[in-house]
């Protein structure tokens, strides 16, 4: 294994150690929403690469999205946030605002200091705003999904 890629592998696999604590029922309930979130982030990453909004200097796969972040902490955190806050939109939104702030303004600076990631043509504020809008869309998606599923159970 390439030593330079070791942080990417740790970022990918470490969050998955918490999945047993999410529980099977919650995992199944929220996995499609977390997968949709990942799809949005993958598409955003492809656009960002073309427009040079940011630079991922240590991707697992060259010229691709940062799957170590997307499939690791992003997916797992999305599951945890929905498990802990779904049913209370204000709690969900505040949790996302805080976690996205930490990710965008604190962790991104740490990754930049170590040479893994750098914002270029997009500001941290814009990226943070995009993530908040994504969080709102995901909550609406999951709310609608559960309404449809629950209606089919009773018909």
From TrEMBL:
Keyword Transmembrane helix: yes
Chain ranges passing through the membrane: 6-23, 30-47, 93-111, 126-145
Superkingdom of this protein's organism: Bacteria
Keywords of this entry: Membrane, Plasmid, Transmembrane, Transmembrane helix
Record-given protein name: Uncharacterized protein
């Amino acid at each position: 294994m390439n030593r330079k890629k070791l942080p990417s592998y740790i970022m990918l696999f470490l969050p998955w150690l918490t999945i047993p604590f999410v529980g099977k029922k919650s995992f199944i309930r929220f996995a499609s929403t977390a997968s949709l979130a990942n799809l949005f982030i993958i598409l955003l990453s492809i656009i960002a690469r073309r427009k040079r909004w940011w630079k991922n200097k240590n991707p697992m796969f060259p010229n691709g999205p940062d799957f170590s972040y997307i499939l690791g902490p992003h997916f797992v955190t999305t599951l945890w946030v929905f498990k802990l806050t779904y049913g209370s939109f204000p709690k969900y939104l505040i949790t996302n605002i805080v976690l996205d702030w930490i990710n965008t303004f604190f962790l991104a600076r740490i990754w930049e200091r170590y040479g893994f990631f750098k914002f270029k043509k997009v500001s941290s504020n814009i990226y943070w705003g995009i993530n908040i809008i994504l969080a709102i869309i995901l909550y609406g998606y999951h709310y609608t999904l559960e309404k449809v599923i629950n209606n089919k159970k009773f018909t």
